[in-house]
Amino acid sequence: MRLDVVTIFPEYLEPLNVSLVGKARARGSLDVHVHDLRDWTYDRHNTVDDTPYGGGPGMVMKTEPWGEALDQVLADGYEAGRGAPALVVPTPSGRPFTQELAVELSERPWLVFTPARYEGIDRRVVDEYATRMPVYEVSIGDYVLAGGEAAVLVVTEAVARLLPGVLGNAESHRDDSFAPGAMANLLEGPVYTKPPRWRGRGIPDVLLSGHHGRIARWRRDEALRRTTAHRPDLIERCDPAAFDKKDRETLSILGWAPEPGGRFWRKVEDVEE
Ligand code: ADE
């Protein structure tokens, strides 16, 4: 997979040389190109922004540097024989970045990222390239960052670990908390390693029992416990067919019950409200 990132802070993308993404690059699974947007400015101050039409606070990134940068990056990639590019535009007004979207992006041969600073990029840039290629406007969460570079790192890491051969063990994705098509998207429960006692704290006995069935059940119950506490929305969204008899017992102990009619599980206080 080829990745291009156009940014006014190329040094912000240094982490792409480290850890899993760095190894994927070294092994040739990822071909990363980081570009300085200011290379496509021609004035003394290397201006990339201007005041917004219609007034208001902040500055807007200008069309010309982005247009020239993207034309060149796309021409270089095409010349290198890359397939169909997709533009990934990090923005707090994008669609939520999910594991499902990470899987979709991991199946594309070439991603071009356009992390913005200030109030974002002049809309005409996205509209222009959307006539030529798929554009994914993505938000990594309901908060506003100072720029899209951190979002590029997040998306790249989520995508890179899905590339064939990068994690080493294809099984490892299947159990991801948000793996698409999983029966139930549950958060993973706690994990432990040696030593067996630390500061007076032990390990749940079941994990030392060697009894695979009981261990799997314990993990499932812990996942249900954690998900009801941190992400009740995931339980409510779940197809109730994904809950077996023991899941239902656990949910009931945690204070959840099926809605009258039996389709969804809800925290009991909510049902009574
Ligand atoms: N740029 C600023 N905030 C962002 C967010 N939450 N997601 C993606 N890009 C952003």
TrEMBL record:
<dbReference type="InterPro" id="IPR016009">
    <property type="entry name" value="tRNA_MeTrfase_TRMD/TRM10"/>
</dbReference>
<keyword id="KW-0949">S-adenosyl-L-methionine</keyword>
<dbReference type="GO" id="GO:0002939">
    <property type="term" value="P:tRNA N1-guanine methylation"/>
</dbReference>
<feature type="binding site">
    <location>
        <begin position="140"/>
        <end position="145"/>
    </location>
    <ligand>
        <name>S-adenosyl-L-methionine</name>
    </ligand>
</feature>
<dbReference type="InterPro" id="IPR029026">
    <property type="entry name" value="tRNA_m1G_MTases_N"/>
</dbReference>
<keyword id="KW-0963">Cytoplasm</keyword>
<comment type="similarity">
    <text>Belongs to the RNA methyltransferase TrmD family.</text>
</comment>
<dbReference type="InterPro" id="IPR023148">
    <property type="entry name" value="tRNA_m1G_MeTrfase_C_sf"/>
</dbReference>
<dbReference type="InterPro" id="IPR002649">
    <property type="entry name" value="tRNA_m1G_MeTrfase_TrmD"/>
</dbReference>
<keyword id="KW-0808">Transferase</keyword>
<keyword id="KW-0489">Methyltransferase</keyword>
<keyword id="KW-0819">tRNA processing</keyword>
<feature type="domain" description="tRNA methyltransferase TRMD/TRM10-type">
    <location>
        <begin position="1"/>
        <end position="236"/>
    </location>
</feature>
<dbReference type="InterPro" id="IPR029028">
    <property type="entry name" value="Alpha/beta_knot_MTases"/>
</dbReference>
<comment type="subunit">
    <text>Homodimer.</text>
</comment>
<dbReference type="GO" id="GO:0052906">
    <property type="term" value="F:tRNA (guanine(37)-N1)-methyltransferase activity"/>
</dbReference>
<comment type="function">
    <text>Specifically methylates guanosine-37 in various tRNAs.</text>
</comment>
<dbReference type="Pfam" id="PF01746">
    <property type="entry name" value="tRNA_m1G_MT"/>
</dbReference>
<dbReference type="GO" id="GO:0005829">
    <property type="term" value="C:cytosol"/>
</dbReference>
<protein>
    <recommendedName>
        <fullName>tRNA (guanine-N(1)-)-methyltransferase</fullName>
        <ecNumber>2.1.1.228</ecNumber>
    </recommendedName>
</protein>
